[in-house]
Amino acid sequence: MNTVGHSRYAVRMAADSLRAEIIKLATLPTFRLTVLGTWAAAVALGVAFASAAIHGQTGTTSALDVGLDPVDQTLAGFIILGIAAATSEYNGGQIRTSLVSVPRRMQLQASKVIALVLVTVPVAICDVIFGVGAARGVLGRFADLSDLSRAAQAVAGAVAYLTLTALISFAIATVMRRTLPAVATLLSYYFIVGPVVRDYTALSIYLPDTAGRSMWFPGYSGTDGALNVMQGSAVVVLWTLVAMTIAMMSFRCRDA
Amino acid sequence: MNAIRSELHKLASLPSVWAAIAVGLLVAPVVAYLSSSTTLSAIQAGTDSGPASIDSGFQELAFGVVGAIILGVVAVSSEYVAEGEEATGTRQIITSLTAAPSRARLLIAKAGAVALAVASLAMATSVITLTVTRGLLGEASVPLTADTAGRVAGVVVYWVLTALLASGITLFTRSGIVPLAVLILNTSVITVTYLLTRVTALANYLPDMAGLRMFIRELDSPVKIAPLNGGAVMFAWILFVLVAGAIVFQRRDA
Questions:
Q1: What does the buried/exposed string (b/e) look like for B194-209 if buried means 16 or more CB atoms within 10 Å of the residue's CB?
Q2: Which of A35-39, A199-203, B136-140, B143-147: highest mean pLDDT?
Q3: Cβ pairs A/B, distance under 8 A
Q4: Which of A83, A123, B44, B57 is least buried, going by the fewest C-beta atoms within 10 A?
């Protein structure tokens, strides 16, 4: 085979492998149910937060600020998406079938990561829009959505944060290989340990969850020793890269 | 008795259960250490005149319940989902029901084993957490009274009921993901049920909001519920979920 033919073959291999991973994600029942549950939660929480805002319990009636609040809880859905994408390979030895089809481990893993990003970004965009939309619907004429550039920036930050967290979860689950322990570990960190540590230690601004708040939480970035949007994003990206590198190395070296 | 013993054996041989116990034993004392240190330095700096909040130590035990949640979920989900690299989808529940064909007895034994394990865990964690708090705060801590013993009992009941709630939900879902997600999310610093109390006063009667009254004294809510009533409300919820779960367990194919 000449060089041109060889590189064409490599490109087709990569495209096929990526398409296969997208099909795997789309046909995973856990994945579909999690997406639907996350969206439903975004709408329900958007309504709940907006109702609380009308009663004057949140200190703001901006549809954007109130509507972004559900991101905090629906993050759980994205953690589960990342985990499911990794651990579904380890039930009943599917990973060996995958490796027979795509023997290059790094290629397989790269396809998985790209497929996860391609699927997660639209899910996250809908998640954020559903939350803000529900809040806007309840708040009605109280809603203030005038500043479109700020809205776009906050939505983009939230989508990036949700996607990066899904990638971190994917990386950790690739090392742990089991669903429940990974779910318990990551949810306990993001929902219990992280928020508690945030209140008591200054260094927590560099942890993935607190740094991530700088990316989307209204009025958080730049206050009170918190990182600004760019710093926060850089820290979360760095955490993602570190987690992903460890996962890749572990996947490359360990028995499948 | 044999059934409970074998259920306890099953729990003790699950690595996830030991992880849950470690989480339960660690979370509350570590958070108590962090928060008491912060309070102590505020008192020493003169920005806080003391004494510490009546809920110091107990507030942390409300987070620590995550260990009980994991244990309650795993006790049931391990019967249905075999995880591991060589797992071939074998479901332990088939073996369990062959050994103990009465489904009601199996379920009661399982609930009993979970309750026993979590009660001991809650007791140990309460003692450690309160010792950490008192050790750090010294004179600034709230004095020990008969009420403290009652509140520790409240913690134990709250942990046991929460674990049983986790088991009950898992009887419906069989997979542990949903109950873990729902219950861990709702153990966070600001819980979904707490937010709901801002929308409707009825949310104060949800299981966790009612159950917390057993040991938290300064709950930020206009609705006052006496500790025993709160416990009774939570108990009624958990009984309802468990009975519904038991009916599903009786009727559905294993």
A1: bbbbbbeeebbbbbbb
A2: A35-39
A3: 101
A4: B44
Query: Rounded to 5, what percent of chain A is helix, strand, coil?
Result: 85, 0, 15
Interface with chain B: mutation pick from A28, A47, A91, highest number of B CBs within 10 Å: A91
Chain B residues with CB under 8 Å of A195 CB are: 188-190
- ipTM given for this complex: 0.90
- What pTM, to 2 d.p., does this model score? 0.92
| Contact between chains at A93 and B86 (C-beta distance less than 8 A) | yes
How many C-beta neighbours within 10 Å does residue A7 have? 11
Which pLDDT value is given to residue A59? Answer: 66
Q: Which member of B19, B63, B195 has the closest CB to residue A52?
A: B195
State the DSSP code for A180.
H
Per the CB < 8 Å rule, is A48 touching B185? no
Q: Which residues of chain A have pLDDT under 70?
A: 1-3, 57-59, 61, 141-146, 221-225
* Residue A247 · residue A171 · CB < 8 Å: yes
Residue-level length of chain B: 254
B-contacting residues in A 116-145 (Cβ below 8 Å): none
**Rounded Cα–Cα distance for residues B37 and B56 (Å):** 11
Is B177 within 8 Å of A178 when comparing Cβ atoms?
A: no
How many domains are there within chain B? 1
pLDDT, tens only, B193-237: 888 888 888 999 999 999 999 998 888 778 888 999 999 999 999
Chain A residues closer than 8 Å to B19 by CB: 181, 184
pLDDT score for A227: 83
Nearest to B218 by CA among B58, B66, B63, B61: B58
Residues 177-196 on A with a CB inside 8 Å of B are 177-181, 183-184, 187-188, 191-193, 195-196
In this predicted structure, what is the pLDDT of residue B84? 65
Q: Tens digit of pLDDT for each residue in B180-196?
A: 999 999 988 778 888 88
Owning domain of residue B180: 2-251
Interface contact B90, partner A, CB < 8 A: no
State whether B85 and A51 contact (CB < 8 Å). no
The residue of chain A with its CA nearest to that of B24 is A188
Q: What is the pLDDT of residues B16-64, one digit of tens each?
A: 999 999 999 999 999 999 888 888 888 888 777 667 778 888 989 998 9
What single DSSP character describes residue B143? P
